[in-house]
Amino acid sequence: MAITIHIYYTGANGSARKFAEEMTAGGTVARIRAEEGNLRYSYYFPMEDGETVLLIDSWRDQRALDLHHASPMMREIAALREKYDLHMRVERYRSDDASAPESDRSFLRA
Questions:
Q1: The overall pTM is greater than 0.70
Q2: Which stretches of the chain score pLDDT less than 50?
Q3: Distance CA 58, CA 96 (A)
Protein backbone atom coordinates (compact mmCIF):
# COMPACT_ATOMS: atom_id res chain seq x y z
CA MET A 1 0.00 0.00 0.00
CA ALA A 2 1.68 3.21 -1.18
CA ILE A 3 1.85 6.30 1.01
CA THR A 4 1.57 9.74 -0.58
CA ILE A 5 2.31 12.92 1.31
CA HIS A 6 1.39 16.43 0.24
CA ILE A 7 3.58 19.04 1.87
CA TYR A 8 2.62 22.67 1.36
CA TYR A 9 5.66 24.88 1.94
CA THR A 10 4.76 28.53 2.48
CA GLY A 11 7.10 31.48 2.90
CA ALA A 12 7.47 35.09 1.85
CA ASN A 13 9.08 36.90 -1.08
CA GLY A 14 9.39 33.76 -3.20
CA SER A 15 11.26 31.78 -0.54
CA ALA A 16 9.27 28.56 -1.05
CA ARG A 17 10.09 28.52 -4.75
CA LYS A 18 13.77 29.29 -3.99
CA PHE A 19 13.77 26.34 -1.57
CA ALA A 20 12.42 23.99 -4.28
CA GLU A 21 14.95 25.34 -6.78
CA GLU A 22 17.85 24.79 -4.37
CA MET A 23 16.60 21.29 -3.52
CA THR A 24 16.61 20.49 -7.24
CA ALA A 25 19.81 22.28 -8.32
CA GLY A 26 21.74 20.95 -5.31
CA GLY A 27 20.96 17.34 -6.20
CA THR A 28 18.88 16.54 -3.13
CA VAL A 29 15.77 15.82 -5.20
CA ALA A 30 17.69 13.40 -7.44
CA ARG A 31 19.10 11.63 -4.39
CA ILE A 32 15.64 11.26 -2.84
CA ARG A 33 14.20 9.93 -6.09
CA ALA A 34 16.98 7.33 -6.15
CA GLU A 35 16.17 6.06 -2.66
CA GLU A 36 14.77 2.56 -2.39
CA GLY A 37 10.97 2.74 -2.27
CA ASN A 38 10.54 6.29 -3.57
CA LEU A 39 7.75 6.38 -6.14
CA ARG A 40 7.47 10.14 -6.69
CA TYR A 41 9.02 13.38 -5.53
CA SER A 42 7.69 16.39 -7.45
CA TYR A 43 7.15 20.08 -6.77
CA TYR A 44 4.11 22.03 -8.03
CA PHE A 45 3.26 25.71 -7.88
CA PRO A 46 -0.38 26.61 -7.08
CA MET A 47 -1.65 29.27 -9.48
CA GLU A 48 -3.65 31.08 -6.81
CA ASP A 49 -0.82 31.29 -4.24
CA GLY A 50 2.59 32.48 -5.39
CA GLU A 51 4.09 32.01 -1.92
CA THR A 52 3.35 28.28 -1.63
CA VAL A 53 4.97 25.24 -3.19
CA LEU A 54 3.32 21.81 -3.09
CA LEU A 55 5.54 18.75 -2.79
CA ILE A 56 3.95 15.43 -3.73
CA ASP A 57 6.08 12.72 -2.18
CA SER A 58 5.14 9.01 -2.56
CA TRP A 59 6.69 5.91 -1.03
CA ARG A 60 6.15 2.19 -1.56
CA ASP A 61 5.35 1.61 2.12
CA GLN A 62 5.90 2.90 5.66
CA ARG A 63 9.27 1.16 5.96
CA ALA A 64 10.65 3.03 2.93
CA LEU A 65 9.33 6.32 4.32
CA ASP A 66 10.85 5.59 7.74
CA LEU A 67 14.25 4.90 6.15
CA HIS A 68 14.01 8.20 4.26
CA HIS A 69 13.14 10.07 7.46
CA ALA A 70 16.14 8.47 9.22
CA SER A 71 18.55 9.42 6.42
CA PRO A 72 21.13 12.22 6.75
CA MET A 73 19.29 14.04 3.95
CA MET A 74 16.53 14.98 6.38
CA ARG A 75 18.97 17.21 8.30
CA GLU A 76 19.89 18.93 5.01
CA ILE A 77 16.23 19.46 4.16
CA ALA A 78 15.48 20.80 7.65
CA ALA A 79 18.39 23.24 7.35
CA LEU A 80 17.06 24.50 4.02
CA ARG A 81 13.58 24.94 5.49
CA GLU A 82 15.13 27.08 8.21
CA LYS A 83 17.24 29.02 5.70
CA TYR A 84 14.10 29.98 3.78
CA ASP A 85 11.92 30.36 6.92
CA LEU A 86 9.23 28.04 5.57
CA HIS A 87 6.06 26.91 7.28
CA MET A 88 4.49 23.58 6.41
CA ARG A 89 1.07 21.99 6.17
CA VAL A 90 1.02 18.23 5.61
CA GLU A 91 -1.61 15.83 4.28
CA ARG A 92 -1.05 12.07 4.20
CA TYR A 93 -2.82 9.54 1.97
CA ARG A 94 -2.69 5.74 1.64
CA SER A 95 -3.63 4.06 -1.62
CA ASP A 96 -6.28 1.41 -1.52
CA ASP A 97 -4.84 -0.36 -4.58
CA ALA A 98 -8.29 -0.43 -6.17
CA SER A 99 -9.04 0.94 -9.60
CA ALA A 100 -11.47 3.80 -9.99
CA PRO A 101 -15.12 2.75 -9.93
CA GLU A 102 -17.00 2.85 -13.21
CA SER A 103 -18.93 5.92 -12.03
CA ASP A 104 -15.62 7.83 -11.74
CA ARG A 105 -14.09 6.48 -14.95
CA SER A 106 -16.73 8.22 -17.06
CA PHE A 107 -15.10 11.56 -16.05
CA LEU A 108 -11.58 10.49 -16.99
CA ARG A 109 -9.99 11.04 -20.36
CA ALA A 110 -7.10 8.75 -21.22
A1: yes
A2: none
A3: 14
